[in-house]
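Q: I'm writing up a methods section and want to include an example of the input and output format. Could you take the sequence below and give the corresponding predicted structure tokens, formatted cleanly so I can copy it straight into the document?
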Amino acid sequence: MFSAILRRELLTPLRRRRMVVFQIGLASLFGLLVILRWPTDGEVALFGARSREIFRLFAYGLLMTLLFLLPVFPATSIVSEKRRGTLALLLNTQLGPVHIFAGKLAAVMAMAGMILAMSLPAAGTCYSMGGLSLYGDIGKVYKLLILVAIEYAAIGMLVSSFSQSVDSAVRTTYGIVLGTSVLTLIPHYFLQGSQGLLADIGEWFWCMSPVAALMSITGTEEPGSQGLVTKIDVLGRYTIFSLTTAVAASIWTIARLNHRLFDVSRAAGTMSDDLSWSAKLFRRFFFLVDPQKRSAGIPSFVNPVMFKEFRCRRFGRLHWLVRLVAACATLSLGLTYATTAGTFDWGVETIGGIMVVMQVALIILVAPSLSAGLISVEREHGGWLLLQTTPMATARIIWGKLLSALLPLLLVLCATAPGYLVMSYIEPGMGQQVKRVIVCLLLTAIFAMLVSAAVGSFFVRTAAATATAYAALLLICGLPMLIWMGRDAPFGHRTVETALSFSSIAAALSVIRMPGFQNYDLVPMNWWILGMGSIASILILLIQTHRISRPQ
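A: Here is the clean output for your methods example:
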């Protein structure tokens, strides 16, 4: 019975033609990462310095690939069964929750094993150059990658058991991946060098990230470490955290795999308009935006598609937007405090670089979740045909949908702006740099939104559209950073600068003069690239929507 679930979960995606392209692309990508740093003079450096540089680039590329591609499989495994009605059939068979979960988890791990198997030739090439230990260097990296696969497979399946739609499961899983791999690095930067309970908490948060564990294995210098050397067993702590998280998530998911999973009861609730006068007055003073108040009609001078998107999307309702903006403003105030407290020790540039990384990570997390499913969700549920029956033109429909994604992004950017204002007040000479950083972030938000919408218009399934949009954005932002890691050997300054011109995060870091990026002049070239990419995305979106709007 276990093998039946495994065969069903694994053979279905492997039969698709796109999986063959996926495998060939993975092998080509890993080979390209090695070729880019392969010695051109036929000589190998002493002590294996060049082989370690090649292996470091390869290891980061492999971790990035695993984090980008793997989560979509466990995130859709249970919720897709629930949506199709086949999960109830599985629960009525002799298969118990343990067998169902084990079969699905084994299928996800088999997909992870396929990704790792595609990388073995490139890893063997790095080992053939010498200077690497098979069990010490390469073995530790693959051990880390297996732990990453187990952890995020269990988390993705737990999220899938709670989700009611495939796209929400994918968004939540990618948000957890981004939070545990990137955002957990931030407290350590603020608290490094200090003593006490907060410093210990920052170290444990640091050890939760697989990126930090890979840094310790490959000997990569921590960006922004200010020359401080830590003697933490990062890999050991990450092993404890990942296995504990995987076991807890697995037990929780198995406990939820029963018929109560389909019993989602909700209170009928009472609309505020139907309450007494005193109750309505109390709710008016208690709530900034009352979530139980009936919405007013749509004015004739606004785009009705924008209102439709806001009212049908959970985070589009005004009270959820207020909560999102409040959370971002609270985060910005915390960063502002860190800026004022740490300026005298670190310098404004370093803390500004940390703020840029956090804001770009927030944009990459929010933008695809808002705009990748603008078209695909309508095609998946039949709403696109209904929109075509309205007297609105296709361009007006697209404009209303884009506005529904753009306005929340602008609110998020405005809520996280006070930190930069404090920086410019502390260091008046940084006023021009802060303005350029804000422009970079604004263009990044517009570019991320338009690219996600253009990518999503080619898909009928929202989950595939969201996952592809995340992968495209992370590839655009992450691949130039891999080339930056190979600066000076073998890539020259001009090559690295050209590659970084395509990355919005690198442009913002160069403007803020973050250590490691201060020697690269990426503005205004990055602005031109983002602008042309945004225009190209709009054209692709219009052409694709015109194509799917023709009579079938």
